[in-house]
Amino acid sequence: MPDNIRARFHIAFPSERGQSFCLDVDAMLPGSGIIAIFGHSGSGKTTLLRCIAGLQKIDRGRLIVNGETWQDEKNFLPTHKRQLGYVFQEASLFPHLCGRDNLEYALKRSGGHCQPKMVQRVIALMGIEPVLDRYPDQMSGGERQRVAIARALLIRPRLLLMDEPLASLDMARKQEILPYLERLRAEFAIPILYVSHSMYEVARLADYLLVLDKGRVAAQGAVSDVLSQLNLPLGFGEEAGVVLTGKVLERDSRWHLVRIGFSGGELWLPDNSDLGKEALRVRILARDVSLALEARDDTSVLNRLPVEVCEIGAGSNEATALVRLKCGDSYIIASLTRKSLARLRIEPGMKVWAQIKSAAIVQ
Ligand SMILES: Nc1ncnc2c1ncn2[C@@H]1O[C@H](COP(=O)(O)OP(=O)(O)OP(=O)(O)O)[C@@H](O)[C@H]1O
């Protein structure tokens, strides 16, 4: 059975004022992991999820989920027959039912396919045992959302759709819920389509990234590949930056630092991570990377890597440019003023030193 999701949709919404919106997507997505769908407001992210859920009927759509055809020229599986879980921005729990009964409802919908062991596993995974006897208005926003995710899992979905599940939560609640999503990805082999506006969430969670712009696919691929591309139609602005995965080599408890190795070299980073982890995901923002022609010791910058300039593209304003740098098998990007680029005569093909002022462990 192929481990992928083939989604092809074309839909046009007419508008009275002549500003019709057209979604035109043809994508082959991985059949596991977290697939982030990113784009500006109005780029078509929710419309794409609705097409996948079968809520938006399209005549010539095509959707195959890990070998199972949900829609093609001849077939259209109605929403209730698609084995999918849908988690919305606001947890859509039944307000008159306690947490446990909300889960019970999902169990009935799963047609008794969910074993008690599985129910316990989901409750433990989402850490919701203490709130099961509370009604939704007696739970925090984060707790409601965790119950909503648990409910979606009990349907035993083959695909989980999440439409900005953290958008209505404050930063503290977001931080509280993100580890649960990471555990969900690690423990369940369900592909998750995760719509988000937040580049931080994408950097932290996504394995694969689909960028939508005005209803079309602007870029797609492994998250580290897409984030290192310059000249996407929608720049990432101040959030431009890459994600690298590295291996923990050493922990320095005196200075609270960790040394990680990746294909391009080594980095020292503030050690705010889970001590047990052997692999860490690191986000390096372009604005935290500067370039030097020679390796210099007399700076406060802890990390210096030999890199090759690959490409120079537009920055977030006229004064700046983004520079794509090859570092071993990885890429990083630097945001520099055009004046500095001219002064140092930086051009594609040059070998220079990237100085990384700061980088954050995101996972
Ligand atoms: N049923 C509809 N009829 C007409 N236009 C629609 C309909 N549904 C969505 N649209 C339009 O399609 C466009 C894409 O909407 P969609 O909700 O998919 O965007 P989005 O990327 O999810 O935006 P946001 O991030 O703001 O939620 C918008 O311009 C919207 O007004």
List keywords for this structure.
alpha+beta, Rossmann fold, OB fold (Dihydrolipoamide Acetyltransferase, E2P), six-stranded mixed beta sheet, five-stranded antiparallel beta sheet, binds adenosine-5'-triphosphate
Description:
It is a single chain. The protein has 363 residues and is of the alpha+beta class. The chain folds into 2 domains: 4-238, Rossmann fold, CATH 3.40.50.300; 241-361, OB fold (Dihydrolipoamide Acetyltransferase, E2P) (Beta Barrel), CATH 2.40.50. The protein contains 8 helices and 20 strands. It has helices at 45-53, 99-109, 116-126, 141-154, 171-187, 199-205, 223-227, 338-344; strands spanning 4-13, 21-30, 34-38, 62-65, 68-71, 84-87, 159-163, 192-196, 208-213, 216-222, 241-252, 257-262, 265-270, 279-285, 289-292, 303-314, 320-327, 330-337, 351-356, 360-361. The strands form 4 sheets. A 6-stranded mixed beta sheet has the order 6-7-8-3-9-10, with helices on both faces. Strands 13-12-11-14-20 form a 5-stranded antiparallel beta sheet. Helix 4 packs parallel to helix 5 (171-187). The radius of gyration is 23 Å and the shape is globular. It starts with a strand and ends with a strand. The structure holds adenosine-5'-triphosphate. Adenosine-5'-triphosphate (ATP) binds at residues 13, 21, 39, 41-47.
